[in-house]
Design a protein that fits this description.
Blueprint (H helix, E strand, L loop, with lengths): L1 E2 L10 E6 L12 E16 L7 H9 L4 E8 L8 H19 L6 E5 L9 H13 L6 H7 L8 E9 L2 E10 L12 E6 L5 H14 L15 E6 L13 H23 L7 E9 L2 H13 L1 H8 L6 H8 L11 E6 L14 E3 L2 E8 L2 E2 L4 H8 L3 E7 L5 E8 L3 H8 L4
Parallel strand pairs: 4-5, 8-9, 10-15
Antiparallel strand pairs: 1-6, 2-3, 3-4, 3-9, 6-7, 7-8, 10-16, 11-13, 11-15, 12-13, 13-14
Amino acid sequence: MQFIDGGVTAPKGFTANGMLCKIKESSTKNDLALVFSEKLCNAAGVFTQNKVKAESVKLTKENIANGKAQAVIANSGNANACTGEQGAKVARKMASLAADVLGINSGDVIVYSTGVIGKQLPVEKIEKNIQSLKDGLSKEGHKEARTAIMTTDTHYKECAVQTVIGGKTVRIGAMAKGSGMIHINMGTMLSVMTTDCAISSQMLEKALRKSVAGTYNCVSIDGDTSTNDSLTILANGMAGNDEITCEGEDFDVFYEALNAINTQMAKKIAGDGEGATKLIECNVSGAKDVETARGLAKAVISSSLAKAAIFGSDANFGRFLCAMGYSGFDFSPEKTSITFESAENSMRTGATDFIGEQKGKRTSLKVFENGVPLDFDEALAKKVLQEAEIKINIECKDGTACGTAWGCDLTYEYVKINGDYRT
């Protein structure tokens, strides 16, 4: 398996495009995207668990209930959520507009929307531009599409991998948006995945749900679960491998590739949280089971106090223990150890009276061991926590299970962004 370029158009048979329609009048970047497969695809998806769901989510769940789809139309600038019957009509109109220009069934169109909640989406702007959007479909169009779904994101998020299944080269591509209103109750915001692998809808969904549990579902930016979270994957089978219809070696290879891309996308989203300056990765080992390990890790990266401490480069590990303690997951505080680890070789310690160890390009600093605080070097700790990527490694000694979660620091800029989001 290897990472490659191309995003959602890396797999055979997929094209994409994006353009500016000014769905939000102040927009200056692309805000409408289209992804298309030349062949009908098997499809699967996971969606927000928020009781309040956007009209795009409701329609897409309905459209892929039969395990089939062929295109994705997505807009930014307006969430089309809390918009009533008019919003439902708009979502259906978006599907029919895409279907008409592509010459496919409207029931085979996935609809995504993201942006401000509680405002009617001006679908006439999409209708005016849909033919141009379709005419611009190309293999290079992933570059236009990947920016069209962004809202407060500071950069686009895409990824693609290549592997071999049954002697055939198989590719998986993805693009996503996500910066705020992100929490682990599905927590993928918007993500479009494509693959030329031949795999049944049932096995596609099985692989997707299994992967999401340890990737997208282990991301939190601000504790808010969006009304619009959607992750769908389309598989057109054009790689030519024998269709994967059950678990086995081929399924395992596909899952490994899918999980690798989802892990990278989850980290990209966590690192680009609204106002964020640091990516936080929390690794819990020695838990009694995987659910507990992930639950404890999620509690740490979701804690506002822990996130604020990371922003201030303050080695206040008590906040991490506190979050673990109220998480509802069982662990033994008296057997727990915590280590901070930096992501870059940017520090030279030169001291001998602290607990610290160089690990290649990383600097590791243990601050808590077997339930007891250590006399660690505060200056070194601060340097570790000033890095752009920080690992919090927690050892529980209650079992053998491991789990990871990703988040970011909580900054002044986050409040500023969300204080005047509608304007």
